[in-house]
Amino acid sequence: MGGAPGAAAAGAPQGALGGIVGRTLTAARHGPLGVVLRVAAMAAAAVGAALVHRLDDPGVLCPLRALTGVPCPVCGGTTVFIEFGGGRPAQAALANPVVLVGAVAVAVAPLGLGRRWWALQPKTRAWMLGTALVGSELWQLARFGVLRV
To answer: What is the pLDDT of residues 17-36, one digit of tens each?
Structure first.
């Protein structure tokens, strides 16, 4: 008990299930297999979210929108996965294109996109994220009728 933090986890035998999970997580970081594993996990989450939503619609999940009526830049993120899981990709893209692009970027990151992202200067990454969030917020404000276009 008095060892270094994390020492028990790092040196402990993993067992069969732990070994499988460890190898799967390692594979999800690299190459085409990583893309397949990430897309499979996202698809399973999307189908699960669509089923839960079909059984019991929880209503508005965004705390900012629930309190103020104003959507946040990632409003529609859950809707993206619910619509994809329900087999409606066009509605998913309309819910929040920025979240959709982000999900695709996470899925293909093992092919080298992730390394390219982290190779950018921090200021460049901040500007790119800021621009995406401002664009997303404008999209959401127009989508919910707060901003008239």
So the answer is: 667 777 776 766 777 888 88
Looking at every residue in the chain, the average pLDDT score rounds to 82
Half-sphere exposure of 136 (CA within 13 A, CB side): 22
Amino acid at 30: H
Task: State the CB neighbour count (10 A cutoff) for residue 122.
Answer: 8
Report residue 128 as tokens.
């790119």
Count Cβ atoms below 10 Å from residue 8 Cβ, excluding itself: 10
Q: How is residue 122 written in tokens?
A: 């921090």
User: Could you tell me if 110 and 35 are in contact, meaning their C-beta atoms sit under 8 angstroms apart?
Assistant: yes
With the C-alpha atoms ordered 125, 131, 134, 138, is the resulting torsion angle positive or negative? negative
Residue 128 backbone class (left: φ over 0; alpha: ψ -120 to 50; beta: rest): alpha
pLDDT tens sequence across 73-89:
888 888 888 888 889 99
Token duo for residue 5: 């933090």
Nearest-angstrom CA–CA distance, 12 and 114:
30
| CA proximity to 78, closest of 67, 63, 69, 128 | 63
Listing DSSP states for 56-109 in one string gives: -------HHHHHHSPPPTTTTHHHHHHHHHTT-HHHHHHH-HHHHHHHHHHHHG
Query: CA–CA separation, 149 vs 140, rounded Å?
Result: 12
